[in-house]
Specification:
Dihydrodipicolinate Reductase, domain 2; four-stranded mixed β-sheet; 389 residues; UDP-n-acetylglucosamine1-carboxyvinyl-transferase, Chain; alpha+beta
């Protein structure tokens, strides 16, 4: 007899709920999705994510009521597959969808290879450059190596997008238990300053501003300039910066931002939107993202704020680490040292308890009172669909 569906209310953290439902095989019902909003129900990017989920899963049952305020999802088998294509709405970055795919793809029946089209750099989500330089190396710590490939074919800045990326992910039989405790001292900073449909001099100004801040912290700073031309530059002008700091123990801290082109041009009275998961406790107020110097300085300050928070990973990737730890070996505990938990990480802990029955032990780090160590015995989830011969 199958377990009763889990019932949630509201639109918050919908990706976490849908992905954990697919991994655990537990049906869910999400009610009251913006019932009092001027435009009630699912947004276009949420509906698009549900369609993407249906593409990588076989046998799922998805139903949405007429108003779009109630979603029912009965998961099937995660199959992955090759040659998939998905067009993402321009309201969110492609990484909004990639962050969901990386939770499902390792446990698929077949390796996943998918082409995503849309916005590659957005103020609401981490950029595709950060996904390539920070998220993928983190996945390698959980046994995902080899065919893990990510390539940006075209840049796509908001509002029109026009970008294109290719993501390939292998499958694993079992997620290993890992220890991510030693943050280590930062040894170098690497980054990408990109431009699309604007002068390449914008990238140089971004780099100079970022180096002006970071070189007071350490000398080993190298930022690559990526200027997209012609058909590779998407449909809208834009530029931005992604930075990753690496420690002597291999831990990564990331920060990024893209220029507020609407604010710079004074169109529609648009106001800059704060970057999701910006470092907590940032002391520099609202950053100026309307100039190259403002973008470079803002990202450099955010990176330094992330480094100052300690922890073995940055705030953007806390929920991802907790998810894979909960799936790990059921005989050996997995551990991670984190700074103050982000809202997404705190909610991930609650969802892991609901779907997998896994609870984390949280204790204050004896060596540093500003961090906590989270440990758990994983669910020992085995990819039974993976071919072994």
């Amino acid at each position: 007899m199958s377990a009763a569906p889990l019932v949630y209310h509201g639109s918050g953290f919908m990706r976490q709920r849908l992905c954990l439902a697919a991994v655990s095989g537990r049906s869910i019902i999400i009610k009251d999705i913006r019932p009092k909003d001027e435009q009630p129900g699912l947004r276009d990017f949420e509906a698009s994510f549900v369609r993407l989920l249906d593409k990588v899963c076989d046998g799922s049952e998805i139903s949405i009521d007429e108003t779009g305020t109630t979603l029912r999802f009965k998961p099937g088998q995660i199959i992955g597959g090759d040659g998939l294509v998905h067009t993402c709405p321009a309201s969110r970055c492609i990484t909004y969808f990639l962050e969901g795919l990386v939770l499902l793809a390792p446990l698929a029946k077949q390796p996943l290879s998918i082409k995503l089209k849309g916005v590659t750099n957005s103020p609401l989500d981490p950029s595709c450059d950060t996904f390539r330089t920070a998220t993928l190396p983190l996945l390698a710590k959980f046994g995902l190596t080899g065919q893990l490939v990510f390539k940006i074919n075209k840049r796509g800045a908001p509002p029109l997008g026009g970008g294109e990326v290719v993501f390939s992910c292998p499958t694993v039989k079992l997620i290993p238990a890992v220890d991510l405790l030693d943050e280590g001292k930062i040894k170098r900073v690497r980054g990408v300053a990109y431009t699309a449909r604007v002068s390449p001099q914008f990238a140089m100004r971004v780099v100079d501003a970022a180096r002006g801040v970071l070189n007071d912290f350490l000398p080993d700073v190298w930022i690559y300039s990526d200027h997209s031309k012609g058909g590779q530059s998407g449909d809208s002008p834009g530029y931005g910066l992604s930075l990753v700091a690496e420690s002597i123990t291999g831990c990564l801290k990331s920060a990024d931002a893209c220029a507020d082109m609407a604010g710079a041009a004074g169109e529609d009275g648009a106001e800059p939107v704060p970057k999701k998961a910006a470092a907590q406790g940032e002391e520099h107020g609202a950053p100026d993202l309307t100039t190259p110097e403002g973008v470079g300085t803002a990202v450099a300050h955010r990176l330094l704020a992330e480094i100052d928070l300690d922890g073995a990973t940055d705030t953007t990737h806390q929920a991802l680490v907790l998810f894979f730890l909960s799936l790990g070996d059921e005989t050996k505990p997995g551990r991670v040292r984190l700074a103050k938990l982000s809202p997404a990480a705190a909610q991930m802990l609650r969802h892991i308890r609901d779907f997998l029955g896994i609870t984390f032990r949280i204790r204050e780090d004896q060596g540093d009172g500003d961090t906590v160590v989270l440990s758990c015995l994983g669910a020992g989830l085995t990819n039974t669909a993976r071919r072994t011969f």
